[in-house]
Amino acid sequence: MKKLLIFYILGTLIVLLWVSPFMISFFTSVKTMDELMVEHQWWLPPDIWHFENYVTAWTDANMGRYFLNTFIITIPSVLGTLFLSSLGAYALAWYKFKLSRILLMVFVGGMLIPFQMLLIPVYRLSLSMNIYDSYQGVILFHIAFQLGFCTFFLRNFMKTIPSSIFDAAMIDGASHFLIYRKLVLPLVTPAMAALGILEFTWIWNDYLWSLVLIQSDKYKPVTLGLVNLQGQWVTSWNVMAAGAIIAAVVPLIVFLMFQRYFIEGLTVGSVKG
Amino acid sequence: MIAKKWVPYAFLAVPLTMYSIWVLYPIISTFVLSFTSWDGVSPTIKFIGLENFVELFNDPYFGVSVINNIKWLVGFTGVCVPLGLLIAMLLDQKFKGTKIYKTLIYLPMTLSFVIIGQIWFWILEPRHGAINTILNMLGLESVGWLSDPNVVTYSLILAASWRQISYAMVIYLAGLKQVPNQLIEAAWVDGANAWKRFIHIIIPMLKPATVVAITVSIIDSLRAFDIVYVLTRGGPFYSSSVMANYMYIQSFHNYRMGYGSAIAVIQFLITLGFILFYMRYVLKSEEER
To answer: Which residues of chain A does B222 touch, with a Cβ-Cβ cutoff of 8 Å?
Structure first.
């Protein structure tokens, strides 16, 4: 009984503390500026709910466009990196060859490196390849940059598949690509799902790389757009809050729908190694 | 699997080419640029030897940035990791509702740092922000959470901790799966013994999780950028600057790409030890399986 009480009191307090920033943002997004600046009662819901702030954010503040851009960038990036890393992971998990171990370390090292090491050359590269300020520029970079983590993650998962399966297939004379496509891919689908969800949130939330590789308003993703709003809408906290919630809602929904995968992905990558 | 030599390379060809272009080549290129005075525009690049590094060591703002990174490091490892562990201990139970509690605490991890920065802006803002409103109601003076040079870095760390603690908790919750449930339950109830049991039994059992939580926190703290950039741009007067942020500002606001590369190289060298440690650890536990 005592244990139960400790748990519920402490647990509820912590959860309230954790959720309060969300509450503040949500209440801010549905109030008028007068309510916010004069009444200061941020812990209370508004008297009248002003959902029109969301309309203002979506249309006048251009969040709708930014929102679409994020989808255009995120989806090909996730699919591309999943596909390419599954190829690399397959080679590193199943074939014994000279460079296997070194290449694995190169991929692991790349996922840990401070991104500042890449910033200037990647910027230069996209200028010289004529993909600066375009969707492709960011997408190609995301695919390449995420290969480190994804290859490592999938390779570890593929290692758990018993090798007898392969030997049988080899005896049957199946080609290497056929084994990859018909045998390995179906088996790693759950891992790819977990990884895909994790990557989706990460790429969706990216700010830095879009900041460096995109200049025109018409290509900017939500994160960049939101910071943009600070200029013109800085005094309209309610519209800013609505914009922030618009930017947050997709990763939140994806997380709530696939929580198990998300958490598994996050921990498989670290604790189990 | 036995196969012709070229087979694995055929599978690796495309991913490795892309990885080389966008990750490996840039790393080398940054090293090279750190010895130049390139401004980001000129077609010619002039080598200036170690000048950038000499200047860096005498640059007071870089010094401030390094010290701030150390504050981030201490905050992430010394505060966020232990708090993550405590919350994980609390929530790793079979009571009704733990699942919902966990989900709610996970939430900040799904957010972009840009959004986290924005959310905390409303909490920290000096005149109408949530914290100062409460302070004023209690008859206390407002604090310049984002404008007082002595406070601002801690405010930023606080905002980032909201997410970092959740992350540490996730790592520990996974680690606690290896610890028998009765041990954890007992640690919460029976008074004096509980603490001893926690220190002498549970903590040692959680060592793998702790190693990961701490190294990841160190690496994260040394590359902190978005929150700083969004909330203060490193100001006022560079007082909340961190290395990553200073590097960005030097490179992309002041067009000193050579100097910026030198900052990146120093930052890389500082992080390198932790990266190598983590890689060794991960690859070793990999072989033990």
So the answer is: 114
Contact A94, B1 (CB under 8 A): yes
Percent of chain A with pLDDT over 90: 38
Secondary element (H or E) of residue B99: helix B98-106
Q: Which domain holds residue A36?
A: 19-50
Nearest CA among B140, B138, B202, B141 for reference residue B175: B202
Q: What is the number of domains present in chain A?
A: 2
Query: Which tens digit of pLDDT belongs to each residue from B63-111?
Result: 999 999 999 999 999 999 999 999 998 888 777 778 888 899 999 999 9
Domain identity same for A103 and A195: yes
Which pLDDT does position A68 carry in this prediction? Answer: 94
Cross-chain residue pair A18–B120, CB shorter than 8 Å: no
* Cβ count within 10 A of residue B163: 19
Interval B137-194: pLDDT, tens: 888 888 888 888 899 999 999 999 999 999 999 999 888 887 777 776 666 666 657 7
**Which residue of B14, B111, B128 is in closest CB contact with A251?**
B111
pLDDT band for position A272 (50/70/90)?
A: very low
ipTM of the complex: 0.88
Q: Is residue A69 one of the residues assigned to a domain?
A: yes
Average pLDDT of the residues in A56-81? 92
Residues of B in contact with A83 (CB under 8 A): none
Phi, psi of B29 (to 5 degrees): -60, -40
- In this structure, is residue A24 part of a structural domain? yes
The verdict on a CB contact (< 8 Å) between B170 and A267 is yes
In this structure, is residue A230 part of a structural domain?
Answer: yes
Helices (DSSP H) in chain A: which residue ranges?
A: 2-29, 33-34, 52-58, 63-94, 100-112, 116-128, 135-159, 164-171, 176-178, 185-204, 208-213, 222-233, 237-257, 259-267
Residue contact A84–B87, C-beta within 8 A: no
What confidence score (pLDDT) does residue A271 get?
42
- Indicate whether A40 and A100 sit together in one domain: no
A269 touches chain B (CB under 8 A): no
Measure A273 CA to nearest chain B CA, in Å.
5
Average pLDDT of span A209-226: 92
What is the residue-wise DSSP string for A218-245? GG--HHHHHHHHHHHHTT-HHHHHHHHH
Same structural domain, A46 and A66: no
